[in-house]
Amino acid sequence: MSTECKKNEDRNLYDLICKLIETGHYIETISLYDGADDLVFAAKDLKQFIEVFGVDFLNTVAIRKIEYDEDICHVNFYADEIIGQDEATDNLIIN
User: What one-character-per-residue DSSP string does 21-67 give?
Assistant: First the structure.
């Protein structure tokens, strides 16, 4: 399954994760790509993904595309923005 997210829909990452789970999609592993299609993070499970980013960050990231592979229960999220890392704090930031 590959889905382009519409501009007028609420498409923050946290809500999209919740919608996937609510519609019966099991998530084993997750990858997040930024606006330049660079891999930001690959998580071994949903818990690790949420722990690394935190709910506040996940609520601020707008997603443009989702790819879900049913065979391996893996989801790729593609963000609109470039996601970088603040050198001083080591926190992830949206550029």
Answer: HHTT---SEEEEE-TTS-EEEEESSHHHHHHHH-HHHHHH-BEEEEE
Listed residue (62, 70, 91, 60) closest to 26, CA to CA: 70
pLDDT, mean of residues 39-65: 92
Q: Would you state the structure tokens that stand for residue 80, as one six-digit string?
A: 């609109």
Judged against a pLDDT cut of 70, whether residue 61 lies above it is answered with: yes
Q: Name the percent of the chain lying above pLDDT 90.
A: 56
Which residues neighbour 32 within 8 Å (Cβ) at sequence distance 6 or greater?
A: 13, 39, 40, 41, 42, 49, 53, 61, 76, 77, 79, 83
**Rounded to an integer, what distance in angstroms lies between the CA atom of residue 59 and that of residue 61?**
6
pTM: 0.82
Q: Which amino acid does the sequence have at 3?
A: T
